[in-house]
């Protein structure tokens, strides 16, 4: 696939047309190795078969053969030129003979000479001869070369200068691929981190292809061979400088590289000449990260250690120290004390800047060098690592360092430090769906801190215990949380105050009271004060509450802002929580196929058990409503995780999905023991959550009244399913509206239910409505549409079809983002998928294909998640 080369192909076509009309053109095509010069010319050749192609190349593997490219061409054009090559002692006869051949060719000729940078002097003279005389010859000559590999003083420089000044000469330089083009290639080949591919390759097409084709994270062998072949052309001093530059990793001034290498800096010019280093703004650095990695890997290990020690010494002078960089060099040089010192500081800096992944790496590095450090230092590092891993949603990895920190503080009797780490361990275990162990830790925290003097840690301890009591349906939990808020305000902790407001607001909402203002205020306080973790949690909890209480459109801003914020602050644990709620929103809005795809994508990520549980509650219900056969396997996983978590809320949602499956199939529900257990544990849950469970149990034959259920549930429980359907309609929930209509039993309502089930794509729902219509005496019930009539001819999803339509309208990614209420990053992914499925390189081509092969599309509406 040739990307971002359309303009060059078009320009070459214009030059070919001018040449064919009698105005000969000599085209110099420059670009670094692997940039795609040959691919460009091969594509141009394939698209212009009307030209007579004469192809030759200079050979860099051997001592150049005089006029080597002309020998290649002679093999294709007959005895005349071969005879001249074999007998002519006067080159002018040979050069004139070749020019005459071009002038009198029956078909417009196109001459290609590749890799001029490896040319011999005779070839350079021949091409200069052509360039001076080509304007009156109906021929196109295209010569490629690497512009960064001609050393000062190389005679080819003067030849190129002579060619470039001729009237018929044109020049073009091929750039690297953009980050967007690399992302398109990466997505089309299933690579999940296009940013990393671009960072490694700098957009060089050859390197990009090799990295995407390589099964490992190391430098691909083909790339390494190419790079090391260039390294082999260097003298010893230049090689030492190149190794030093590789170890320093970042562009550096010549004096710094020379200091680390212990060599004279003048030899850097040789490193530039072979195309490995580039000099810019007084510094020298590698053109591509892949090249740097290959060079560093190839340096002898003992020499690498020496160079890292020298780099550490050089970089540790001065006041503005880069602790991350110093930690790296000290680590590689085996300087443990220094590595521990700088890695610890670098981890703290990264955490403060929300560079969570970098913080994890630095904490891990510090711990590798902390074997001889005091136990208190190791405990602090373990706690820091656990916190950073937790924010990355790597709770399984966070457990061991957190337990190590708990063990240390338990042994020393440091009450507040022990409480803080026990609280974090309780949350870790909850995230891992180990509810009983989590509750035991929370209880220990409360016992430890209930009689402690006022402090911020006591606030958190009271809050944790209060939350657990509320979750268990015990009213004293609310009082304890209010005590925690009062204490936070009394000691002047804004962070704790904002967090307590958020938790109290959440519990007020789920208790049927108005806690929305408190949650919004908590979010505002956290954002303004820079409490990133609390703000991320605030977005996540507020949006989940909005989805659970069917205020989806009203809080769309919360999802959009929160998703961007969580990614910006590198907090995947809250990103996945928020997106799990998005799956539930899509389910409620009746966008079942989209919800299924969206949740399946989330489940393909590395997410913690509780986030997986959250996603599965939406995914399983979606699969059940679609009639997807994979629902059974997912249901088993959902039940297991909900059971391990232990909270009634998740078990209720799992039971809801199981009851729906039985109801849609028209079969008896077969696990009433489980249903009875969950129902008995549901007394502390909100009327919204408990009421929906009661509706599904009633539909399956076990009435379960809830006195304070909201109207969309309570009306059906009170015998008015038509009123309930109207409420569901007002909330914008078509599947739920249809389910309530089925409960009426009257034919008109059943027909409306059939239409709704069909519209959202619920085959089991449609089949149920048809059965009920036949039971009601309605026998002329239309069959549903065949799936083939809804299929897109290109295999596009409904969302991708929408994006394609907007591309055809000429919209930018920003315009599409605003039209569909999705992030620009999501638009990038959709555009890449559309281009891949249509087999075209650009959005312009995609629009053309769409116009040429237009087919009716059933487009979705409103926003999709990012």
From TrEMBL:
Keyword flag Kinase: no
Keywords recorded for this protein, A-Z: ATP-binding, Nucleotide-binding
Gene3D superfamilies per UniProt: Tetratricopeptide repeat domain, Winged helix-like DNA-binding domain superfamily/Winged helix DNA-binding domain
Molecular function terms from GO: adenylate cyclase activity; ATP binding; DNA binding
Lineage: superkingdom: Bacteria
Cellular component GO terms, alphabetical: cytoplasm
CDD domains registered for this protein in UniProt: LuxR_C_like
Domain HTH luxR-type stretches: 789-854
Biological process according to GO: regulation of DNA-templated transcription
Pfam family, one: GerE
PANTHER family xref list: TESTICULAR SOLUBLE ADENYLYL CYCLASE (PTHR16305), TRANSCRIPTIONAL ACTIVATOR DOMAIN (PTHR16305:SF35)
Protein name: AAA ATPase domain-containing protein
Species this chain originates from: Pedococcus cremeus
